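WARN no homologs supplied; continuing
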Amino acid sequence: MEVTIQDLSEVSREVEIKATPEELQPHFNKAYADYRKKVEIRGFRKGKAPVDIIKKLYGDLIEHEALESIASDFYRQTIKEKNLKPIGEPTLIDLDFKHESGVKFKIHYDVRPEIVLKDYKGIEIEKVVHPVTEEDIEEEVLRLRRSNASFQETDAAVDTEHIVTVDMQDVDESGAPIAGKRSPGVRFYLGDENLELPFKKALSNANKGGVYRVQFEHEHGDHKHNVNAELTATKIEKIMTPELDQALVEKMTKGKTVSVEQFRADIRKDLEEYWKQQTERQVINSLTEEIIKRHEFQVPESLTRNVLDRLLEEMKNESPGKNLPDDFDVEKFNEQNRPYAVYQSKWALLREELIKSEAIDATDEDLAKLAERDAERMKIPIDRLVNYYKSSDQIKDRIIGDKLLKILTDSAIIKEVLEKKAVKA
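OK structure emitted
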C-alpha cells in the first residue's frame, strides 16, 4: 500500500492511498463471502452457492459496491501506521479502480489546529444586573391572572381584552376570493403586543358577523409577502380576568399558599432567581466571547459541519411528523447558521485547551458530592448514583465544564451595571 499525505491548509489534509490488485483481493474475497450469505441462486440453497458462481454472476457489482468500505479500511490502517491524528468525519473525494492496476483513493480529513493560549484570566467584562421591581411583579401577576381567565361570548369587541375568531379568506386585487386560500377559525387577541397593526386596526370594535379587509406587506425575518384578505368575524369573546384574591392564589398553588402577600413574595423570589440565572449566563457568554476574540485560528470544516448537522436534526425533530417541509432550503439554513456553528466549534476547541492547561478533572470526590446532592431529589441510593456517575462521560464532562467556568469567572474583573429599561410605546 502506497500512501501520500498533502497539507491543504492549517487544519486540512489529503491522503492518497494506492493499493495493488493483490492487496485488494482479501477485501474482495470477504465481500464475495458476505454477499454469498444473502443471495439466492436457482439450484442452490440460500447462502450455499459456490463462490466462483457468485464472482461470475455478480463479481463486478460486488467489487464496486465494496470499494467505499475498503477505502475506510485502508484509511483506518493508514491512521494507525502513520500515527495520524484526524478529527471529525473524513470525506472520500476520489476513487479510481482498475482491475489490472488496483485502486487509488483520495480522502480529505481534518486535524486539530495548533492553539497557543493567550491571556484568559483577569478579563474585564460588564455584568448587567436586573433588580426586580414592583412593575415586574405586577406584570407576572397579570400574566398569571390571564392564564386563569375565562371567556364570555359577546357581540362586539369594545376594547383590547377581546379575542376575535375569524374565517380568513385571501382575495385578489379586485377583492375576489382566491380558491384554496381560506383559513377558518383564526383567533386574534387584540391585546397581544405582537399582533400586527393592520389586524388590530381592522378588528378593533369588530362585530360578530362583520366582514373586514386587511391589505399590507408582512415581514418575517428576511422574508416578505403581501397579505390581502377578508376577515369574517365568527365569534367574539370577552376575556374575564379574575382578581388576585385568596381563592385564586389557592387555585394556582394547589393549596400550598393561601396568602396574597406570600404569593407576591414567592413571585419576587422566583423572578430574582430567574434574573440571577440570566445574569450568570450573560457573564459566561461575555467571557467566552472575549476569549474567542483573543484566539485566531482556523476551524476545521468537519467540526462546523457536525454542528450544522445537529442543528438541522433538532429542527427536524421539532417539525410535525419529524420531517422538514418539502420546500425547506437546507443550503440557506446552513448559510444562515454557519457563523454560530463556527463559533461553537471554536469554543469547543478552546475549551479543551483550557481544561488541559488548568489540569481540570472530575475526581471521585466531585462525583460523590454530586450524587449526595442529587440522591434525594432523584430518589436513588447514593452508592448506586455514584457508580452510575463514575461510568458517565457526560456527567464527568459537566463537572469539568463547571470547574472551568468557575476558574474563568473567579479570575474575571466584573463591573456591575444596571440594565437599561426598555421604553414602552
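The chain has three domains: 2-111, 150-240, 260-418.
OK
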